[in-house]
Write a structure and sequence with these properties.
23 strands; 8-stranded mixed sheet; PmbA/TldD fold; 6-stranded mixed sheet
Length: about 475
Amino acid sequence: MIAKALAEEALKVALSSGGDFAEIFCEDSRSNNLNLIAGKLETAQSRRSYGVGIRIFQGTRTVYAYSNDMERASLLDCARQAAAALGSAQTHPQEITLTPSKAAPLHLAKVIPWSVSGAKKVAKLKDAHLAAMSVSSEIAQVQVSLMENDQNILIANSEGLYVSDYRVRTRLSAQVVASNGKENQTGFAAPGASMGFEIFDTMIDPAVVGAQAAHSAVTMLHAPLCPAGMMPVVIEKDFGGVIFHEACGHSLEATSVARGNSVFSGKLGQVIASPLLTAVDEGLMPYGWGSTTIDDEGMTTGYTVLIDKGVLTGYLIDRLGSRRMGMPRTGSGRRQSYQYAPTSRMRNTYIYPGEDDEEEMIATMGDGLFAKDMGGGSVNPVTGEFNFAVREAYLVKDGKIAHAVRGASLIGKGSEIIKKIDRVGRIVGHGPGMCGSASGSVPANCGQPRIRVSEITVGGRQG
């Protein structure tokens, strides 16, 4: 990483053309991915990301430059080029004194991934593979992957900040294909957390993960096509939170709000959702997939209430968004690596638990759909309009789950759907994922209790 004296020198150079703020982001991270297909290790890939990014502000104008060389000459040259790109205003030399600190650890990885042998890791993948294959003779293919990542970062800025942090994440995924010879259906499960290899002792049983994905695939293989139409929908916890994340969460980030490219711009203090809905974004959730002790601008992360009983109470704001909006930062500046300037991003975003009985919301819904597991989809980030596939769905008849259906999708507009939530369950589930935006792909957690939407358009291939 970069010594304090060198960081002070580089920041001074960065401000030499009239900038009013400068920041250095140093990174040394490693990632490891193992991929098992048909019970055999298909790929084992390791990657290292090592470099530095320099950002300069002049009001709301910004310049960002980066290099994979942290030696003094290269670092100062990077700072000079960034300063030159900003402009050539006259300025007085600014003295910068950095105060070293280290982010208090939110959670410590007990078993660093690189200390574990490849054989032990492959054994975990094989456990998931065998469990999936044992579910049914219709299982045609099993692909199991292990993703490990650790990241050392150092952030220094012209306000005197000089802080470091260390992050470790581990995730296991299983994708299973079931086939009857004429068609295929896929099941998927992928738990993960900010933990080391000890995750397999405390949180993840590979056999359970493999079997879960396999059961879903087989269930959908034998399911009839889903009918289409407007109907009430109950959305299960865990990955159900991806709808709020995509259809509403991105519209609450300063990246969209500050430019007026959000349906929620200028609506603080207004009722925008059902009074049953409270939604938060949290950076300090213990072992949360999207948790960090500090954000990628060096600010301590925290707890941001976005919607409180239907009222819009907050946005996710990074440093640039703060300048544009005239509002305080929320510790939400995030980036994929040193190659990206940070922007406002979600961390662990979830709907707060309510008081409704999970079984009652199905028993009183009449005819509708139970969306047990959500798949991928598309969202218009400006309007919040979405179309999401339902990976595992069940038709509800007269308040009772009748049978599984396939080919279902949920279609709507985030700002309208959150007004139609009429039940919120008591137990929150969380699902990890990778979220892409202007600052690259970052780990983000989506969560919610079981909820009911009184009416939503269900896309299907029958009727």
